[in-house]
Amino acid sequence: MERRSFLKMSAAMGCAATVTGCNTGSSDVNVVPPKPNLTPEKINWSSCTCNCAASCALKVISQDGIVTRIESDNLGTDKGVELQARACLRGRSSRQKIYARDRLRVPMKRVGKRGEGKFTPISWDEAYSIIAQELRRIIDTYGNDAVYWQYASGTNQLRAGGRESSKRLLNILGGYLDMYGSYSAAQIAPASAYTFGEMTSSDYKQMLNSDLILSFGFNPAETRMSGTGGALDYSLASHKIESIIIDPRYSDSALGAESQWLAIRPGTDAALCEALAYQIISQNKHNQSFLDRYCIGFDEKTLPVSAPQNSDYKSYILGLSDDGIVKTPQWASAITGIPEYKIVELADKLMAAAAPFITQGWGPQRQANGEQTARAIFMLPLLLGKVGVAGTNNGNWPRHNHSLGLLPMGTNKVKAKISCFMWTEAIVNGVNMTAVEHGVQGVDKLNNNIKFIWNYAGNTLINQHSDTFKTKQILEDESLCEFILVHDVQMTPSAMFADILLPDIMDLEQHDIVANPGTDMETIIAMTSAVKPAFDSKSCFEVCRGIAKKLGVENEFTEGRTYQEWVEFVYESSRQKNPALPPYAQVIEQGLVKVPQTGSGIVMERFISDPVTHPLKTPSGKIEIYSERLAEIAATWILPDGDLISAIPKFYDTWEGVRDEETKDEYPLQLIGHHTKGRVHSSFHNIPWLREAVEDAVWMNSIDASVRGITAGDAVVVTSKRGSVRTFAKVTPRIAPGVTSLPQGAWFKPENGVDIGGCINALTSLRPSPLAKGNPQHTNRVQIVKA
């Protein structure tokens, strides 16, 4: 370790790393203050509940209610059903997070302009009173549908003490404007539902039964890093089985494991899949009997009666449909940047594989044409008929399962829902938002603009939402959204926009129960903290109870149960559905318990074995390559120019895509984002150790850097139509020419119209994807210049 790094760590720990080297200002450097009397160490189990979907075990060692160190799961043999749910460097840095300098300490109310970050301390009683008054005023003035619960995932895995408490309270008050989808998987979720009836996939362990792993934008080494996460499963498989990575960036998942990396241009995965489909179909290697029995719309004879002639998938691939384009490897090569011969080789490998495991991460679908990309990838295993048997997958991200339920939230009487990405539109234009133009669900149109935002444990309010400069302007205008409640642990960029700002407790201070899903087992973790909540912080449950009391609904909220009784209630309700779960008392006593996973982990296995007895949840009960529901949406929805919804999967050129002539001269580079090992979305960005360990810099190919006079480490400015970001350059052959990538999640820090924090969303667009109305974060055109 460099000396400067060691000194930084020593300073951050109050010189705890040295014995006598901390200068206290005394002239006698040999004077050592007496050690305080400390109680013996206590060991409790906790969990890292940030949104990487892992919930890894944390072994918390404390003295006198203060965390002294963090370890992780070290129990059992670390094999099979005793695999250790070890935390990654993020979870292991939880001590630095709980005692971070920007930890929120007391309730506060805004005293400056919204967004300035000027607050004054208030009591909890005053905070509850203000929140209750504002909730009541806005509900009485506008209606419950003017209250919006903001998408958030900072504490994503708590069963009783998390975000469900706030939803439960709002439902008791008559409901709220809810949202659907997610920033992570908005486009792939409906793509899965319209094709398979639901979002489902094979388990990771099926990779080991495969003879070829083909992945698109799949990067578990940086997104699923835990001891029981996908990184381990993929590593074990990819070192034994031929693995091909399709990705604009040579990610950490590819390092040393892949047989081949094909650097593809962003947003063109569907074109590659169509060329592969052409090779399979033109050589008569598609599984016709599978497609006839299990699928709708591959060719003319399985099309629904309502479908026009030549609207089937086969006709489209062979150039017999309206566009008249034969989807050859030569055609796809010009779009994707992958050489024609490589496409042919890949098709040959797929056709020769006995059990290909085809999967995708969520990066390819997080684009302007993301729904089409996801559905195009689904077509590859379907054409080969390699679904429902060992070693195969349906093209979706492989899954891990857990069996714990959540705090009951009651019934939301407000039927309207908006896409989680459309909330800024609902602030400025909610009364004009409709089902056919904006994807509103449950009603034909909204009645109100958003006037109240409840933002719990999330940084989506500004940092993780697109076009942060535009979003900042919207939130600053107090005549639009009239009240913003933020309840969080640190002074995040989103917290700066609060009218009332409340300090939350953290994982290590929390009492709850969580599940870490793994390959052969799930780990049930009892969070039984001996750590004192820092400063004057309170959990979401306690905050909601305090507000409920002010509103006269405390009894309805608690139902006479304490918080701990609700935790036990949730767990026992889960045991009724999964009798393999041990008694609650046993989990508390042991701290963590390993429960074996059941089932084969093969997607749609029962459907493939008997499609009549076990139909899918689609209208036809079959796999819908052609969707009549999508055909109806395509015919009735109002879409902007350049957007497409189609009954079958289709590649199309998008705004700011690889062939967008309007923007590519001024903004010649494509920009995507990527996850890093130092953050979960924006969580942990405030930890200096992690920022030092994982560099925040824009990735550039040396070809693109050299023509701009940029070398590694140079300060650069990245500019799109929306804004500019100042950061540093990482010049590397690990990214395709013409493509750049900026780590997502860095905290927004505007200064003189430029973000100096490195937040990618200062560059991204608020224009949603066509079907899901989802986040198109990886569809951007930019220019990069030396600062």
Helical content (DSSP H or I, runs of 4+): 25-40%
Strand element count = 28
Strand content: 15-25%
Q: Helix/strand-derived class?
A: alpha/beta
Q: How big is the Rg?
A: 26 Å
Characterise the protein shown here.
With 787 residues, this protein is α/β, with parallel strands linked by helices. It has 25 helices and 28 strands. A six-stranded mixed beta sheet has the order 5-4-16-15-14-6, covered by helices on one side. The chain has a six-stranded mixed β-barrel with strand order 21-25-22-24-23-28. Mean pLDDT is 92; it is low at 1-30.
Nutshell version of this structure?
This protein is α/β, with parallel strands linked by helices and 787 residues long. Helix 9 (269-282) runs antiparallel to helix 12, helix 9 (269-282) crosses helix 13 (340-352) and helix 12 packs across helix 13 (340-352). The radius of gyration is 26 Å and the shape is globular.
Features of this protein?
alpha/beta; six-stranded mixed β-sheet; six-stranded mixed β-barrel; 28 strands; disordered N terminus
SSE layout and pairings?
Elements: H1 3-12, E1 42-47, E2 57-63, E3 66-72, H2 89-92, H3 94-98, E4 108-110, E5 119-121, H4 124-141, E6 147-149, H5 164-172, E7 178-180, H6 188-196, E8 212-216, H7 220-223, H8 230-238, E9 243-246, E10 260-262, H9 269-282, H10 288-294, E11 295-296, H11 313-317, H12 329-336, H13 340-352, E12 356-360, H14 370-384, E13 417-419, H15 423-429, H16 435-438, E14 452-456, H17 468-476, E15 483-488, E16 500-503, E17 511-517, E18 521-528, H18 540-550, H19 554-558, H20 563-577, H21 584-590, E19 592-596, H22 605-609, E20 623-624, H23 628-636, E21 669-674, H24 688-693, E22 698-700, H25 702-706, E23 715-719, E24 724-731, E25 739-743, E26 750-751, E27 754-755, E28 781-786
Parallel strand pairs: 6-14, 7-13, 8-9, 8-12, 9-10, 11-20, 14-15, 15-16, 21-25, 22-24
Antiparallel strand pairs: 1-2, 2-3, 4-5, 4-16, 17-18, 18-19, 21-28, 22-25, 23-24, 23-28, 26-27
